[in-house]
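Supplementary Text 2. Reproducibility record for the structural model of the 333-residue chain.

All settings were left at their defaults, and a single model was retained for analysis rather than an ensemble. We include the record here because the model underlies the residue-level annotations in Supplementary Table 4.
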Amino acid sequence: MKVLEEKEISDFDFETVKAYRIRYDARHPDGAWTKLSDEEFLVRVGAASKETSDHRIHPTGAGLIMFGQEYLITPEYPSFFLDYREKLEQGIRWTDRVQSQSGEWSGNVYDFFVAVYKKLTADFKVPFMLEGPYRVEETPKHKAVREAIANCLANADFFQKGGVVIERYPDRIELSNPGTIILGKGQMIHGGLSEPRNKNILKMFNLIGIGEHAGSGVPEIYEVWKAEGLKDPIVEETFGTEIGDRTKVTLPLTLSQSLVTSDEACDEAGDEAKLLSFCSEPRSKTEIREYMGIKSERYIRQKLIMPLLEKGSLLRTIPDKPSSPNQKYIAKK
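Retained model, structure tokens:
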């Protein structure tokens, strides 16, 4: 809640503010704040304050982190850093990356949240469901991942080194933030109490339907993962490393061993045989995806191509350049 009187409202990225307000207005269509000017709205949500020595509106610390521009955030929070990495293919350092110092986007927390949520859930299945005339685009699994990202950001200690790091592997999602759990790991998993490190950031997420105040967010993630038949999430704390204390939450994307059925094993084996037969001559990922009748390129890469490459049954036509746009795959003779 610290008011940064040396900063101005113009230090916010107003494309970010606009995107946030669209989501807020959709959730509160008749709300009194929807008609306010941007400056007044930012004061109401806690991103700015009028309680200043010059009687002008200035950003709060939370507001700057949530809506500011990275090059203006780091003078106030020198260790501020947000990093998303996809590591979906062996031999490639990362297949996708979003980081706050790239200069390609605002570098603030809200835009990072939106971008990472889309990437983490891009290949989640969405069954056809309706609420009234509208299609429901989110499942409990989507909401659990959304909760995990918000929890990571609302509990990050932005004064410590290391920054927020979220990584996507073929078999898991890892969310790591500087700082340990204020109420302790056991209480976090058990739920019932909430003590977020960044209350004002969490408030701004709450206003658009993201995050939990009642301490039920993490237990609900565990319940969703159990209902999906996935392995249990893992919460870890490390203390006194070179970059300080850290908290890491791992969300496995593999089925609990007791729920892996023989039918699923048969389906996977059938898909592999079908792909290898098709790749009797060099084929691109797009050709494979179209032949298999599967829309998700990520599914083709993670569930079929990568396992077959690891087994040696499938080979790259350009092995020394795994990410080449001209890459094709051929079955080993």
